[in-house]
Design goal:
Helix content: over 70%
Distance between the termini: 50 Å
Radius of gyration: 20 Å
Shape: elongated
Number of domains: 1
Number of strands: 0
Largest sheet: none
Strand content: under 5%
Structural class: mainly alpha
Length: 146
Protein backbone atom coordinates (compact mmCIF):
# COMPACT_ATOMS: atom_id res chain seq x y z
CA UNK A 1 0.00 0.00 0.00
CA UNK A 2 1.22 3.46 -0.90
CA UNK A 3 1.79 5.90 1.95
CA UNK A 4 -0.20 9.12 2.13
CA UNK A 5 2.81 11.27 1.18
CA UNK A 6 3.61 9.15 -1.87
CA UNK A 7 -0.04 9.15 -3.02
CA UNK A 8 -0.23 12.94 -2.65
CA UNK A 9 2.94 13.34 -4.70
CA UNK A 10 1.57 11.08 -7.43
CA UNK A 11 -1.71 13.01 -7.52
CA UNK A 12 0.10 16.37 -7.66
CA UNK A 13 2.49 15.35 -10.45
CA UNK A 14 0.10 16.05 -13.38
CA UNK A 15 -0.66 19.50 -11.94
CA UNK A 16 3.01 20.31 -11.51
CA UNK A 17 3.73 19.13 -15.03
CA UNK A 18 0.75 21.12 -16.36
CA UNK A 19 1.98 24.26 -14.61
CA UNK A 20 5.47 23.74 -16.05
CA UNK A 21 4.04 23.38 -19.56
CA UNK A 22 1.79 26.44 -19.12
CA UNK A 23 4.59 28.72 -17.93
CA UNK A 24 6.98 27.35 -20.56
CA UNK A 25 4.46 28.08 -23.32
CA UNK A 26 3.86 31.62 -22.04
CA UNK A 27 7.62 32.25 -21.76
CA UNK A 28 8.52 30.73 -25.15
CA UNK A 29 5.72 32.60 -26.89
CA UNK A 30 6.80 35.93 -25.39
CA UNK A 31 10.50 35.47 -26.22
CA UNK A 32 9.86 34.33 -29.79
CA UNK A 33 7.15 36.94 -30.33
CA UNK A 34 9.41 39.82 -29.30
CA UNK A 35 12.33 38.44 -31.34
CA UNK A 36 9.98 38.36 -34.34
CA UNK A 37 8.64 41.90 -33.88
CA UNK A 38 12.03 43.42 -33.09
CA UNK A 39 13.50 41.78 -36.21
CA UNK A 40 10.91 43.64 -38.32
CA UNK A 41 11.63 46.84 -36.42
CA UNK A 42 15.43 46.61 -36.57
CA UNK A 43 15.34 45.77 -40.29
CA UNK A 44 13.16 48.84 -40.94
CA UNK A 45 15.56 50.92 -38.87
CA UNK A 46 18.62 49.53 -40.69
CA UNK A 47 17.02 50.36 -44.05
CA UNK A 48 16.18 53.91 -42.91
CA UNK A 49 12.40 53.52 -42.61
CA UNK A 50 12.22 53.86 -38.84
CA UNK A 51 13.87 56.24 -36.37
CA UNK A 52 13.85 54.06 -33.27
CA UNK A 53 14.09 50.26 -33.54
CA UNK A 54 12.78 49.82 -29.99
CA UNK A 55 9.55 51.73 -30.71
CA UNK A 56 6.95 49.00 -31.08
CA UNK A 57 3.21 49.54 -30.73
CA UNK A 58 2.85 47.98 -27.28
CA UNK A 59 -0.92 48.30 -26.83
CA UNK A 60 -2.76 48.56 -23.52
CA UNK A 61 -1.87 46.97 -20.19
CA UNK A 62 -4.54 44.27 -20.30
CA UNK A 63 -4.11 40.68 -19.17
CA UNK A 64 -4.47 39.28 -22.70
CA UNK A 65 -1.87 41.70 -24.00
CA UNK A 66 0.54 40.97 -21.17
CA UNK A 67 0.20 37.17 -21.47
CA UNK A 68 -0.28 36.77 -25.24
CA UNK A 69 0.97 40.08 -26.72
CA UNK A 70 -2.25 40.46 -28.75
CA UNK A 71 -2.04 44.23 -29.27
CA UNK A 72 1.68 44.51 -30.01
CA UNK A 73 3.15 44.98 -33.47
CA UNK A 74 6.37 46.17 -35.11
CA UNK A 75 5.16 49.75 -35.71
CA UNK A 76 6.44 49.81 -39.29
CA UNK A 77 4.48 51.86 -41.81
CA UNK A 78 4.62 49.85 -45.03
CA UNK A 79 2.53 52.23 -47.20
CA UNK A 80 5.32 54.83 -47.61
CA UNK A 81 7.83 52.09 -48.40
CA UNK A 82 5.73 50.69 -51.23
CA UNK A 83 4.68 54.18 -52.37
CA UNK A 84 8.38 55.00 -52.82
CA UNK A 85 8.68 51.90 -55.06
CA UNK A 86 10.88 50.11 -52.53
CA UNK A 87 9.01 46.83 -52.59
CA UNK A 88 12.18 44.81 -52.06
CA UNK A 89 12.91 46.70 -48.86
CA UNK A 90 9.31 46.21 -47.72
CA UNK A 91 9.68 42.50 -48.41
CA UNK A 92 12.96 42.36 -46.45
CA UNK A 93 11.31 44.08 -43.49
CA UNK A 94 8.34 41.70 -43.63
CA UNK A 95 10.55 38.62 -43.98
CA UNK A 96 12.93 39.60 -41.17
CA UNK A 97 10.55 38.37 -38.45
CA UNK A 98 9.81 34.84 -39.60
CA UNK A 99 13.01 34.13 -41.51
CA UNK A 100 15.81 35.89 -39.66
CA UNK A 101 14.50 35.94 -36.08
CA UNK A 102 12.40 32.78 -35.92
CA UNK A 103 14.19 30.74 -38.58
CA UNK A 104 17.58 31.72 -37.19
CA UNK A 105 16.33 31.18 -33.65
CA UNK A 106 15.16 27.66 -34.45
CA UNK A 107 18.51 26.82 -36.05
CA UNK A 108 20.41 28.17 -33.03
CA UNK A 109 18.12 26.33 -30.57
CA UNK A 110 18.57 23.11 -32.53
CA UNK A 111 22.35 23.48 -32.56
CA UNK A 112 22.49 24.17 -28.82
CA UNK A 113 20.12 21.27 -28.09
CA UNK A 114 22.32 18.91 -30.13
CA UNK A 115 25.43 20.16 -28.32
CA UNK A 116 23.89 19.80 -24.86
CA UNK A 117 22.31 16.47 -25.82
CA UNK A 118 25.68 14.89 -26.65
CA UNK A 119 26.81 15.20 -23.03
CA UNK A 120 25.48 13.05 -20.20
CA UNK A 121 22.67 15.01 -18.57
CA UNK A 122 22.52 14.75 -14.83
CA UNK A 123 22.42 18.38 -13.70
CA UNK A 124 19.03 20.00 -13.19
CA UNK A 125 20.13 23.20 -14.95
CA UNK A 126 21.05 21.35 -18.15
CA UNK A 127 17.70 19.54 -18.19
CA UNK A 128 15.92 22.86 -17.58
CA UNK A 129 17.91 24.44 -20.43
CA UNK A 130 16.95 21.61 -22.74
CA UNK A 131 13.29 21.92 -21.69
CA UNK A 132 13.22 25.69 -22.38
CA UNK A 133 15.24 25.43 -25.60
CA UNK A 134 12.86 22.77 -26.90
CA UNK A 135 9.89 25.07 -26.27
CA UNK A 136 11.71 28.04 -27.83
CA UNK A 137 12.63 25.96 -30.88
CA UNK A 138 9.05 24.74 -31.23
CA UNK A 139 7.59 28.24 -31.09
CA UNK A 140 10.22 29.52 -33.51
CA UNK A 141 9.21 26.80 -35.97
CA UNK A 142 5.53 27.61 -35.40
CA UNK A 143 6.22 31.26 -36.28
CA UNK A 144 8.13 30.34 -39.44
CA UNK A 145 5.36 27.97 -40.49
CA UNK A 146 2.52 30.43 -39.81
Amino acid sequence: MIGTGKATQQMALPYVYGAMVFFSVIFAHAVDFFMHEFAHSFMAWALGWKDNPLALNYGKSTIDNILMQQQIDENVRYAPIFAAHNGLQGALIAAAGPLIANGGGSIICGHVLRTIGKKPQQAVWSLACMWLLAWLAAFNVFNVWS
